[in-house]
Amino acid sequence: MAFDWQSFIGQNIGQAFAQIVGAFKVPPEKALEAQTETARIQAELAEKLIDQVNTEISSAAEIIKAEANSQSWLPRNVRPLLLLLWGVTITANIFIPIVARFWFPAIQPLVVPDWVYKLTAIGFTGYVTARTWEKVKDADN
Q1: Which of 26, 47, 68, 90 is 20 to 30 A from 135, comparing alpha carbons?
Q2: Are residues 19 and 34 in the same domain?
Q3: What is the pLDDT of residues 94-137, one digit of tens each?
Q4: Owning domain of residue 112
């Protein structure tokens, strides 16, 4: 004979469950009011997030403009110099071990993750595009 759950718990589990859930049932008006309040709060949070992102973007743009308009050579050239240094480092990682193998056969290039190459390509593409656009805008003057 198999174990009978209904005799252990009670005859009508579904009815007991329905009574318990029914005791906590929210009226439709209250449920609609709660959904409306939740939607309003979500809209406020989305608006605050958009305002924060816009503030961050505008402050970053002001910093870049200040660097570009600086009288010193360093703030104006730090981004291109860092991009150049990045590219030279990646290139050296490939070519130095190839040349050094003639004297030190055990030297291997460092394993660089794919995202580093993608980031470098994005950086160079963005910089070249921005400089090209600046030159096109200055050509009209």
Answers
A1: 90
A2: yes
A3: 888 888 888 888 888 888 888 888 888 888 888 788 778 777 87
A4: 72-136
